């Protein structure tokens, strides 16, 4: 059945979300499923023909989408994150790019038999890694912070550099028939692209920052205005100097990310959602354009070239570029293992193949087939093996089973002690030195500082922590904390301890419940009530390894001792939390019932048998 254009667009959107969801459930990079879906919809079933669907607008759409993706990625590049590995990143995108280009060009010349000109151009095309493949892979790889920073910075910066190299090599190939002026023409083109791309990118960033600082654009238009300016900057830069647009939007994004006095979180949030849609759609569209016959015709030599790129070129480049750095051999090994090629290589290869055919180069379409073979090969192989390699090397972040507690007061310390005794990692953040000192004496992990400060944001290592509990006696602080950390934790994993008496505040003064985080505890005890109960139950100043008496008691459920048995035996205890058999923390809440089973551990607190159960 022939689908309408509208149906095909809906099919792409539906397939994209299905691939992303499947990747999330299976903890595998979404690129695997997106490529497979594109191939099935395109060359296998002939359901989707991107050229017929978009016509002449296909490549403008691809180019503008890549510009948005690069800009969004560069908005996350903060200089303070990369200081300790900046030398490695700088060498990877300069000397490393040249090493990669020259080695791949030689390999494709000897193994594939490409002419020298096409081998040089192919080497430049597949230098790039790119955020379209690196960032989705990092989500499932969960590499340590330093590795993630190196790969993310390299992937975003190498895209415009790789495109620039491809343009220069292409111009060299086209002008090589001339007897003179070859070197001067290439150098002039290089300077023109750098000058126009960097200049326009910086100018656009300065203009946008000025507009935001002076409130010339209302907040609800800032994301839309930024998008319009990114597309304009990219298009204008490409018009003035071909392929300089990628450099322009990258410079623009990095400049804005590190500018002082402007708030770009809303802009970044909008761009992240848009980028996810564009990445998904682009991979499906470009995979659907594949010519499987040309791809399969490459045969064994293509596999040999892929092996050279994976096991020789990348390790040599990373090894040379990391000399003198403080990266461990395990970190260098994983960086050398991960270098998938992405959308920029695919899109640019198609463009230059068409240009070469126009200039009389026969079989120039082999560039596209060879580039896609490298993209598919690196993406599939590295997606399937990178996490296993990272785990074997010991350079992955721990599972996100821990809890960040904002507050190190008596209540927070009691909760943290009970969790640590059950093997759940905790981190307490508090600006009070007295509270921090007491927590340290109890053997708890702490961070001294204001949880809302920039200093804490820079120092906070969230690897291994998947949930947040706001546990201060100040209602406003708890609310601010829950809002502040929404970018770091999913809303469903943000909890707080109630700090005001129920039904005592008029609606006009009460903070909206969706801004406060979920209330901890099945009975929803307030901070004051919990503090009183903890004081009545026990002293919590003893070290973790030798507690006098824990104010929060742990009880393990078995096949013969269920939650119903526990409730019957403990009418004077209130459930706060539970820990699953795989060491994952779950909170009881007044509006949430946990379906416990054998192997779960219940954490509860006792209230006086003579007292009526109140939450205040």
Describe what you observe in this structure.
- The protein has 25 helices and ten strands.
- With 616 residues, it is α/β, with parallel strands linked by helices.
- The chain has a six-stranded parallel β-sheet with strand order 3-2-1-4-5-6, with helices on both faces.
- Strand 8 and strand 9 form a beta hairpin.
- Helix 10 runs parallel beside helix 18.
- The chain is elongated and about 90 Å long.
- The termini are far apart.
- About 2% of the residues have low confidence.
Key phrases:
about 625 residues, alpha/beta, 25 helices, about 60% helix
The biggest beta sheet reads:
6 strands, parallel
Strand content is: 5-15%
Derived structural class: alpha/beta
Distance between the termini: 65 Å
General shape: elongated
Total DSSP helices: 25
Q: Helix proportion of residues, in percent?
A: 55-70%
**Please, what is the average pLDDT?**
84
**Overall strand count:** 10
In terms of topology, how is this protein built?
Layout (H helix, E strand, L loop, with lengths): L4 H22 L3 H15 L5 H5 L3 H17 L4 H4 L3 H7 L2 H18 L3 H10 L5 H11 L3 H31 L6 H32 L5 H22 L4 H13 L7 H24 L3 H6 L1 H23 L7 H9 L5 H16 L7 H28 L8 E5 L3 H12 L4 E5 L2 H9 L4 E3 L5 H6 L5 E6 L4 H10 L9 E3 L21 E2 L7 H11 L14 E5 L6 H7 L3 E7 L5 E3 L13 E6 L10
Parallel strand pairs: 1-2, 1-4, 2-3, 4-5, 5-6
Antiparallel strand pairs: 7-10, 8-9, 8-10
Helix pairs in contact: 1-2, 1-14, 2-14, 4-12, 4-13, 4-14, 4-18, 6-10, 7-8, 7-16, 8-10, 9-10, 9-19, 10-11, 10-13, 10-17, 10-18, 11-12, 11-13, 12-13, 12-14, 16-17, 16-19, 17-19, 18-19
């Amino acid at each position: 059945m022939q689908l309408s254009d509208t149906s095909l667009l809906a099919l792409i959107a539906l397939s994209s979300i299905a691939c992303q969801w499947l990747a999330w459930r299976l903890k595998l990079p979404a690129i695997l499923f997106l490529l497979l879906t594109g191939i099935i919809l395109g060359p296998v079933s002939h359901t989707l023909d991107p050229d017929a669907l978009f016509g002449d607008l296909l490549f403008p759409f691809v180019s503008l989408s890549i510009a948005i993706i690069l800009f969004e990625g560069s908005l996350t590049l903060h200089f303070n994150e990369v200081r300790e590995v900046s030398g490695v990143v700088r060498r990877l995108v300069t000397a490393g790019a040249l090493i990669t280009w020259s080695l791949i060009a030689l390999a494709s010349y000897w193994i594939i038999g490409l002419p020298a000109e096409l081998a040089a151009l192919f080497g430049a095309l597949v230098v790039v890694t790119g955020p379209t493949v690196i960032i989705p892979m990092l989500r499932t790889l969960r590499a340590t912070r330093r590795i993630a920073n190196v790969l993310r910075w390299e992937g975003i910066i190498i895209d415009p550099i790789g495109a620039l190299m491809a343009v220069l090599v292409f111009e060299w190939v086209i002008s090589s028939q001339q007897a003179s002026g070859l070197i001067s023409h290439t150098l002039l083109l290089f300077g023109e692209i750098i000058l126009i791309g960097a200049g326009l990118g910086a100018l656009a960033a300065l203009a946008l920052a000025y507009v935001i600082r002076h409130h010339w654009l209302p907040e609800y238009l800032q994301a839309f205005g930024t998008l319009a300016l990114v597309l304009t900057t990219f298009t204008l830069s490409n018009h003035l100097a071909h392929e300089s647009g990628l450099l322009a939007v990258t410079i623009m994004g990095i400049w804005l990310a590190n500018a002082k006095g402007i708030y770009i979180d809303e802009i970044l949030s909008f761009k992240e959602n848009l980028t996810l849609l564009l990445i998904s759609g682009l991979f499906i569209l470009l995979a659907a354009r594949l010519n499987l016959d040309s791809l399969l015709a490459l045969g064994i030599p293509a596999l040999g070239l892929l092996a050279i790129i994976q096991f020789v070129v990348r390790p040599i480049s990373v090894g040379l570029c990391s000399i003198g750095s403080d990266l461990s051999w395990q970190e260098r090994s994983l960086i050398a293992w991960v270098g998938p090629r992405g959308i920029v290589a695919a899109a640019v290869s198609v463009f230059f193949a068409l240009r070469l055919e126009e200039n009389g180069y026969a079989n120039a379409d082999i560039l596209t087939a060879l580039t896609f073979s490298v993209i598919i090969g690196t993406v599939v192989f590295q997606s399937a093996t990178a996490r296993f390699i990272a785990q074997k090397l010991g350079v992955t972040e721990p599972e996100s089973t821990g809890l960040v507690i904002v507050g190190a007061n008596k209540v927070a310390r009691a909760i943290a002690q009970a969790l640590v005794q059950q093997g759940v990692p905790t981190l307490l953040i508090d600006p009070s030195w007295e509270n921090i000192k007491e927590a340290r004496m109890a053997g708890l992990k702490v961070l001294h500082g204001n949880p809302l400060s920039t200093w804490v944001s820079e120092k906070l290592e969230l690897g291994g922590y998947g949930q947040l509990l706001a546990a201060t006696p100040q209602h406003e602080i708890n609310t601010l904390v829950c809002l502040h950390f929404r970018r770091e934790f999913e809303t469903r994993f943000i909890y707080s301890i109630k700090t005001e008496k129920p039904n005592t505040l008029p609606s006009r003064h009460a903070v909206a419940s969706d801004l406060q985080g979920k209330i901890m505890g099945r009975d929803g005890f307030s901070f004051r009530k919990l503090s009183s109960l903890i004081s009545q139950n026990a002293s919590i100043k003893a070290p973790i390894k030798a507690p006098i008496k824990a104010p929060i008691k742990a009880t393990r459920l078995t096949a013969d001792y269920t939650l119903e048995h526990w409730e019957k035996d403990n009418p004077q205890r209130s459930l706060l939390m539970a820990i699953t058999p795989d060491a994952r923390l779950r909170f009881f809440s007044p509006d949430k019932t946990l379906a416990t089973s054998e192997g779960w551990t219940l954490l509860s607190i006792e209230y006086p048998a003579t007292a009526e159960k109140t939450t205040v």
